[in-house]
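Continued from yesterday's entry.
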Amino acid sequence: MRRIFLVAVPVILLLGAVTWTVLALGGPYNVPWSTVDGGGGESAGGSYALKGTAGQPEAGSKLVGGSYGLTGGFGPGVAGGPPPSAAKAVASLRTAVDVWLPENDSAAGVAIGIPQVVDASTGLPLPNVLLGAYAASLTYPPDPPLPPDFIAVLGCRLKPPFETGACNTSGDPNGIVILSGLAPQGAPWPVDPLAFVPLRLLGCVQNVGTVTLTFSQVVDVNGDPLDPGPPVVRTFRRGDAKPDGVVAISDVLYIRQYLVGLRPLGDGPGQVNAVNAASVKQDGAFDKITTADVLYLAQLLVGMRDGCFSLLPAAEPPER
């Protein structure tokens, strides 16, 4: 009996080893040796932070078993600077009339604004974003002595809650207005206007001028950057109040309807372009929409004024 017992023990151990090996292999699958290379979580000190991973295989080649694969490596980091912003500021450049203090006089021009902040990928609104600061430029063709189809900037004013900032209209020969504004407490959108810039069209009815708004930087109240979006361009033609690209009797009608409250100002269909309308008769420090603009347009259409709205000499009466 003793000799039988000594033989049975090795046999049992051998069978157990074979069984364990089969179970460990699991058919076509293979689990290679791996190590736990550091604890998970984040360690921070001062302005530095270190993120660790738990249970990650060592860096090396890809491990394959059947139709499955596992690649070892390091936790992902940030390459090439900060990640792109998920928020996008929607810029607005619209024609408007503003009360210009301290002169307390109305002025036609363009209102600069950010009416919306959206997700850069989906275009859906992001209502919880608070705007903190912006920097922008408004470019326009310079004044004469170049050909008179250009635009004059008559001033610039920042609007609340972004009154802290700068608005430079110091006669740049290239036609550039530099704007910046700051709201330390943050401002929910829409913020429209951020600023107002009075304009005057210097050309004739056949001339076309453009104004381009470009936001170089927009940040939220935490200082995180937003995608400033593409430039916004507006095109102007003196007298084209409708605006449809031509100066005609419909422009006279549109200005008259605005003056009696039948049409709004704006840049869409059925709206009156404030700059095109107010620049017909130039009114001193600033241009505003009045009955005189209606009269000047009517006189142009019946041949009493030229395309630059200068009064033509009266025709001599025929001899009898």
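--- second protein ---
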Amino acid sequence: MGEGNGASGTDCALRYRDMRVRMANRPVRNPVMPAPSRARFTSIELIGWPALGGDVRLSVAPESTILVGRNGAGKSAILEGVSRACRRATLGMMSTPMPGQFRCSAESEGSTIHYEFTLSPGDEPELADVAERSSRGPVGIWTEKATLASGEVLWEVKDGQVVVKGSSVMRLPTNIGLLTVSQHDEPRWPPACALLQALFRGVVSVPAGVPRQDGARHPVYMERFVSRKPPAPIGRGDRVTRLTRSILNWGDRLPHLLKEFEAIGQRINLWSEVSVKVYSAKGPSGDADEIGEVLVDDVNFGMLSDGTLRVAEILQHLITPRVTLLLVEEPETSVHPGLLSRLMAEVEAYAQDRQVILSTHSTEIVTRTHPEDLRLVERVAGSTTVRALTSAHKRRIKAYLKDDGTLGEFVFGGALE
């Protein structure tokens, strides 16, 4: 899909359709992979990530983990490092900088799986096209290991050789690991392969700031040829356009998610109706085109307020079934305190079957948080550190709350420094 100028006037014959009705009885194409409900991160380590100035270990709460700290402490760098490491482990090549070593522990049905990878500098293969080399980024040498809590090695990858439980089973390029392989349903793969692959691929990041990046409101329309099933490339490529495309795809392929998206917005009093409308017309070449838009209470999605777009972006990722870990930077940006409270209630509800890690400067969010789920991020001598609250902190919090204070006031009043 590419962003167009809309469909209007006498240039084309417009045909309105509500896609939720039109697609309700059509078989789902390419359904979103359901998230593994039995796997959760318990700890994450980022090693050799220059943005943090040192090695960082984060203990991950079962549902929501809240990062607090001063500006520049490293909260955003932690979220970026987690996202990039998980993408690199499952998708292969990336041109963006990332941690040189990553470790994590995950729990599934009472068992603990330890996983780690190391990406060491290495020579690039001969590439005739310099542009291709640039687009692929540094290759490096990939090593990978997964073990159980007992110490049993599930698999290792070293120098391109995959060893499963002591037996060599296949060779890979030296710059990728086993989690990049699509088919893990073969008997030779440990079940943990598919489990970790789905867990890592379900890590989704919502960056800081509002989705509208240029500060100006523009109506967003998406265009495609009827004969072409997949969306055509998007013109703008910003967060508002990508969000519009996702919602349009829901209307086309997963109408139940569109209904859920609408319902959650109604619960938090953000909107009354979300609809997807598609117009058909004849393009300049004579081919049949479809032009779609998302309307929120009859307003084009691109024309909504910054706060509404910010909440909509968080909700879109929150309800996507494949998401296993949602990383959100400062969800309070441009959001009214009353709306923020209702949004966090929804986040807490959905965190029961998918984890959430968010950074915040909001007393409202911290006040809603259980002290066990808070993580204090500090920058000491150029290095980022993360720590949970100590027993002494918790005793002081308990006494503070008895005097009618709030946890948010306690934290941001400097009591932890």
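Residues 36-201+330-417 form a domain with the Rossmann fold fold (CATH 3.40.50). Residues 1-37, 124-138, 225-235 have pLDDT under 50 and may be disordered. Will compare against the first tomorrow.
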